[in-house]
């Protein structure tokens, strides 16, 4: 992908990140500007992963039958939190296209650079009121107890308690994805820790600058939590605890650790859903997860966008290298 400078404006489209083998952000930030770099990772699973979780074995996805709450499913996460899902509202609110909604701004000298990062970008559209926040649960003797609601799930049955009455609803536990080393490694709650972008001159391959987003920028621009569930669902939450996009994930190329993520987005002014999908390159280093964009369709769209924004008299092309580092969350953190 390219970055195009036009009349003082810089438009950046992200390319696939190529990472240092140690998977350490420090290795990327320490290199001085103006050097020629090439980062290649040969060990995609560096070190040993150890995550202490509240309910690792009890994490599960339950589909529920028709009920007065219009609830469609409940997903219990390994950190002791859960998400209620309500029909179409369980679908994504995340931006999918390489457009203004998915752009993140960062300074480059006296200019502003816009980077399209749909996987990490926090969507500004509000989630459904009262149905977006995670709750907490306990598990004992086969019974899930939703603490803030006093509902329980036991023996394939959901008990909805309200106003002294109990509604009984069938709840079926869905099958998990096939067991594998990668699925075991990814199936956690992850907190975004650092995001790094490097810009290179596309002709000389020299490093132009390295940018690490500040804590304030992270809070404003990005989601905070990713949850990759063994059921094959994924969830995103922002820094305010609100749900910020759900979807489905699977391994499309396990040997290369390429994950496919798909969405269905709904707009407040258009009842017709928009479907989207892209791939992510996944790396592990000890207890860190690293994510990089690697979708060919996204690359093509970015190239087309750059061409449309080009100015033949003043055309400077760059390419970007991005790296997102996440850490596992063993116990629910509101």
Note down, in words, how this protein is organized.
The protein has helices at residues 25-29, 181-186, 215-221, 296-308, and strands at 3-6, 9-13, 45-46, 60-64, 73-76, 81-85, 103-108, 111-116, 135-140, 143-146, 151-154, 157-162, 165-173, 189-201, 207-212, 225-228, 233-237, 243-253, 258-267, 270-285, 288-293, 317-329. It is 9% helix and 45% strand. With 334 residues, the protein is mainly β. The two termini are 37 Å apart. The protein has an 8-stranded antiparallel barrel with strand order 14-16-17-18-19-20-21-22. An 8-stranded antiparallel β-barrel has the order 4-5-6-9-10-11-12-13.
Characteristics:
about 325 residues, mainly beta, 4 helices, disordered N terminus
Number of strands: 22
Residues in helices, as a percent range:
under 10%
Largest sheet: 8 strands, antiparallel, barrel
Strand percentage lies at: 35-45%
Find the structural class using helix and strand composition: mainly beta
Biggest β-sheet: strands ordered side by side in the sheet: 14-16-17-18-19-20-21-22
Q: Mean pLDDT score, rounded?
A: 77
From the spread of the alpha carbons, the general shape counts as elongated
Low-confidence stretches: 1-24, 89-98, 295-314
Q: Over the alpha carbons, how many angstroms does the gyration radius reach? A: 21 Å
Count, helices: 4
Q: How would you spell out the order of helices and strands?
A: EEHEEEEEEEEEEEHEEHEEEEEEHE
Assembly annotation: single chain
- Give the CA-CA distance, first to last residue: 37 Å
